[in-house]
Amino acid sequence: MVLVLALGDLHIPHRAPDLPAKFKSMLVPGKIQHIICTGNLSIKEVHDYLKTLCPDLHITRGEYDEDTRYPETKTLTIGQFKLGLCHGHQVIPWGDLDSLAMLQRQLDVDILVTGHTHQFTAYKHEGGVVINPGSATGAYSSITYDVNPSFVLMDIDGLRVVVYVYELIDGEVKVDKIDFKKTASIHTAH
Amino acid sequence: MPPALMNPLMPPPPPPSVSVSAPPELEGSDDVSGRSVTQKRRFGDLRGLQWRVDLGVLPSESSTSIDDLRRVTADCRRRYANLRRRLLVEPHIPKDGSNSPDLTMDNPLSQNPDSTWSRFFRNAELERMVDQDLSRLYPEHGNYFQTPGCQGILRRILLLWCLRHPECGYRQGMHELLAPLLYVLQVDVERLSEVRKLYEDIFTDKFDGLLYQENDLSYSFDFRKSQDLLEDEIGSHGNAKVKSLDELDPALQTIVLLSDAYGAEGELGIVLSEKFMEHDAYCMFDALMSGVRGSVAMADFFSSFPVAGSQTGLPPVIEASTALYHLLCLVDSSLYSHLLDLGVEPQYFSLRWLRVLFGREFSLDNLLIIWDEIFASDNSKVEKSVDDNIDWGLRILHSPRGAFIAAMAVAMLLHLRSSLLATENPTTCLQRLLNFPENINIKKLLEKAKSLQARALSVDISSPSPLIIGYHLQSKSVMTRSQTLPSETVSPKTPVNLLTDSYWEEKWRVAHEAEELKQDGIEQQIPTRKKGWTEKVKHTLRRAGSDPPPSRIKNGKKESKVVRRNILEALHKALGPEEEAEQMDCHEILCKQENISEAAEGVQQNDNSKGDNSYSSDDRCPSGNTGIEESSSVYSDSTSPPNEANYHEITSQGSSVASNLYLDECDETADTSLSDPPLPVSDHPESNIPQMSGCNNNDPGNSATHPKEKKQNKFQWFWKFGRNTVEGISGKVGAASEPTKSTSSCSNQSNSQPPVSSTTSEHFTSVSSKGDSVDQNVMGTLKNIGQSMLDHIQVIESVFQQDRNQGVSVENLSKNILVGKGQVTAMAALKELRKISNILSEM
Predict the structure, then answer these.
(1) How confident is the model at residue B777 (pLDDT cuts 50, 70, 90)?
(2) Which Gene3D superfamilies does the record match to this protein (chain A) (predicted)?
(3) B587: Cβ–Cβ under 8 A, 6 or more apart, which residues?
(4) Residues B149, B260: one domain?
């Protein structure tokens, strides 16, 4: 059983001062094994903060990131799942499922995590999942000002992944859960 | 399910036919436990089974039928299985099939402590903690305990127990209590399969066909472990061939019936089953920790709060440690007071001993034997009438098992007795306590513990608790005035009997009893002893008179003297006419008598240096006390404030000088009265050595070595000068350095002498302590002593020569002359010393 935290588009300090307090109190060290971050942190301090939650941190580069050494895309394997990571501003049209599916095929991953739109979405697509964790701080995007802070926690266990979605709506944390099972056929197809 | 493990370290199971009928010899002699002999024999060779009965997991009545045993076993296992199902959380699997309704509560990041996920994380944390300890469990038996299967079982059991008892939680050491339990179960199972193999050989032709038939039909799809298969074989066979079963050894028959898969409760009821080892181990562990229907619950030893209903208000383990010292005090008061002197409190070592039931002190094989005894002792409270107005002080002493545990600890202390008495500071003392020797005679230790157990049980009846609390509180301040403690703690506790009024006679009786307990050991050590009995009486006598010297001051000198005299007279009667010479001495001054016997011992028992030292340690001081009027200052000089020190020292020195005159006389008389042709000259040094060590052991302030005292004798007339000039001498310097110091100060010249002499006295101590610990090779030790004496003499000599060179510039002429004289006499003494050492080294 592995817990993977996925978040992105924090835009600290330009568009938001910090993570919401409720999120901060929930995110404690010791529980999470990996963090994947889609980018736009945007400063080193946020990177350091994430490191305190879990030392195994994977970040791709957003267009506002100070640190230019982050890669554009990144793939990693956790358990039986192959995860792909990309900020998403490179994929046009922004947030389009077909374009993202193309990237998913390109990277050859089971789970693709992208950001940039600041809207939580999760699609089951072609035996894989495409997830956008939204903005963890609720920062405005170039598309909309109406953004709820949200992030995603994935519980990967064997061939099964449970996606917990944490969203802050009107000061209350709302949790949702999406079950996803990787079928053996897909695994053999690769 | 753990893999079938064959442990090469495991003691090979004895051939079944032999051991089944003969129970382990150690179990034969205890009648403390209530079990009947037949019951003992019932599972005598199956240790795990026996423990389960002893711990109260299985019914202990001998009338219990096999079926009942199986039923109880099955119930226990069911309970454990339920517990495991309930408490071991798997957050991924929804418990009741449906999704948890409240995701806000049940998610991995939930802060709600009741949520499945936070329980899961708590368990995981506990598991990590347990794992940390488990990974270091018995590295020497790693090929069993470090296997993943075994670790998994241990981890689950510990986890479940801790979850079940959240008030206790996991504490380091619990795993070491559990591991042997699992181990014996494993041994049992292996032994069972051994028996089965044998059994199979006999009947192999008869159910071979049956086996294959069954295999073909029903077992082909599910080829389970051969173990289970064999169980089924025997089961079917046992049912089919009852007649042949009856012909078997009854014990073997029991085994077969216990493992019959078709008996009561079916497979779940198989009393010895590898499959349910985990369940059984949990039940045993739980019974051990919670102390089913008894007073000794191991879990208490891990808690830091007093148990409800505790009289002392102390944490149980501290209370048990107190009980341990209490018992030690009764059995061996000199060792007790020595430990108190050093400020070694019982919990420093007993925490480690008690919490894992000596698991760290003994090898696993020995540990199992010890646990056999511990568990064999009944854990139920001893029935005593409630209305006899006795407070329940020390809970551990209430049940035979607790008493045995305490007695075991005391036996271990007594085992280390000589080396403990030789220690000078708490650190080395604790080092010896915490590094218990590995190669010991476990049987002897257990016998000792058993004899102490009976004593501990009888002691408890007459022990009022408030005093024990008082003792404990006092023992906190042990460093300051430890000497007075024994008298205060012991006197009320000793049973009231014939000699009602006199405290000292009671004291003597206690010491005497303790002595008798030790007689065996002593006599074994000294087979060639000439006057064993009278010597022993004298030992006890001396100890009786001398044990708590400071309190004598408190109680009044006269009374103690009278008692002493009484005891001495009793000794006269006991000694009989054949020891005229010694009696004569007895009629003389008391200290003389003691020193004579001392010297006599020194002559007679070259090989008993241990005993001599320890006794003379007590001996030395009271001889000053009773023989001479102002002798109390010998003791008071270590405690008196610095400004008084000067006066006290001088008086004490005076008194010790006086006593030394006696000593010398005594030595001479001893030499003459006791004709010991082989080594006539060596009488002198030998009587010196024990005394020296005794002084060092007992009172650092009084650590004057005998040769020094001699010199002191001759310096006696220097005191007039010394009194004026000796100032600011701390009590710490010690009497040994005082004579030389006073000479130096009166001569106004030597700065280097005091340190030198003090170091020499230290050297003597170390030497004598060395002599203490080595019993068998006394000759070698004596040689060492002689060698080191020679060394020290050379040092002193060189110092004196230096002084002579420096002494030219001293202004006072008359004093200079005196100094010269002192040096001459000192040189003479030193020469004598050298002679002694020469003789010694020749030996």
Answers:
(1) low
(2) 3.60.21.10
(3) none
(4) yes
Which of B99, B107, B127 best tests the A interface by mutation, with the highest count of A CBs <10 A? B107
A vs B: CB pairs below 8 A: 35
Min distance A185 CA to chain B CA atoms (Å): 23
What is the C-alpha to C-alpha distance for residues A44 and A46, in angstroms, rounded to an integer? 5
In a shared domain, residues B259 and B315: no
**pLDDT tens, B148-196?**
888 888 888 998 888 888 888 888 888 888 888 888 888 888 888 887 7
Domain extent, residue B152, equals 47-93+107-204+243-279
Across the interface, of A155, A160, A175, the residue whose CB is closest to B104 is A175
Kindly list the residues from chain B whose CB atom is less than 8 angstroms away from the CB atom of residue A30: 121
Q: Calculate mean pLDDT across residues B675-691.
A: 41
Domain A2-181: what homologous superfamily?
A: Metallo-dependent phosphatases (3.60.21.10)
Residue of B nearest to A30 (CA): B121
The encoded tokens of residue B589 equal 């001054």
The full set of domain ranges for chain A reads 2-181
B123-148 pLDDT, tens digit each? 888 888 888 888 888 888 878 888 88
pLDDT in tens, B195-251: 777 766 543 444 444 444 444 444 334 333 444 444 444 444 444 344 455 556 666
Is some CB atom of chain A closer than 8 A to the CB atom of B108?
A: yes
In chain A, which residues touch B (CB < 8 A)? 1, 3, 25-28, 30-31, 153, 155, 157, 160, 162, 164, 166, 173-177
Q: Tell me what ipTM this predicted complex has.
A: 0.80
**Final residue of a structural domain among B441, B459, B477:** B459
Residue B606 falls within a domain, yes or no? no
**Matching residue, tokens 């389960």:** B52
pTM, 2 dp: 0.54
Query: Is A164–B103 a contact, with Cβ atoms under 8 angstroms apart?
Result: yes
B528 touches chain A (CB under 8 A): no
